[in-house]
Amino acid sequence: MAWTDMGSDDHDHDKISDNYMILRPEEVSLRNLIGILVSSDIACKAFLKIPTGKEETIKDRGIMFMCLLGQKLLQSFSVPMSKLGSALEKWLNILSSNDNLSQLLLRVLQGIIFFPLPHRRLDLDKNIKHGDCKYYAMLCAMASKLSYENKAVVEKTVQECWKMELLGYYDFWNDYQRKATTQGFMFQDKISDPDTIIIAFRGTETFDADAWCTNIDLSWYEFDMGKIHEGFMKALGLVINQGWPKEYEQESKKPLAYYTLREELKKFLKQNSRTKFILTGHSQGGALAILFPA
Fold first, then answer.
1. What is the per-residue pLDDT for 40?
2. Looking at residue 117, what DSSP letter applies?
3. pTM summary value
4. CATH 3.40.50.1820 domain locations along the chain
């Protein structure tokens, strides 16, 4: 089947890659979705972007349908999902703090419900010291876990519990979702290893609709190393209509992860030529950690 890009932004994709398949859920209607399932001729649909004249085979149109439908539904229910997640977390914390449901009901009647903060393991393994072969693996695992916490918890844990220096906590802008949906932090052990900087990206939170939209965006661009997931590139800092410019002047209120972290690392390298950096993350954060150096 010969695919033709009928959209007006073909040149934008050419700036990134010569081969790509881009799905645009924001442009999809119910009629488009039904058309995917009942018709093999979907080349003229505005939500599909493929290079002009490129032959491409879509073996399973059901996957494309589910991807687009899933993103549309997630976008529609993002606020209720967030509220549900917050309410569920509070309920589970209250239940856990009061031992079990029967104890909670009893304490409700007595008017003595406990509302302590949930317990989390945030301290490092004291049996693994700097220089051990497991040290950085352990530190990266704990940093990936800590990345799910808010700024106050991250700051307190890194500085007071780990006795290290927090170099930055970031809410990065996603140029396509038009909001700050990528989080991460940077820290350094100035005493034991002043030459190494660690960056941890936050992964997917269960009730975060924006993160799930990123995950199920099956669009891709092809590079020398293979095909790369566009959703993760958007989260890392793909620029609308520009792709990955070598130099990009950011807006102060809309920092992109890739360009912000790249500039920070350049500053450290100028100060210390021996500077090394480690990237880590869990789930979506792991994907960003892999993609950043590439």
1. 57
2. P
3. 0.84
4. 135-213+239-291
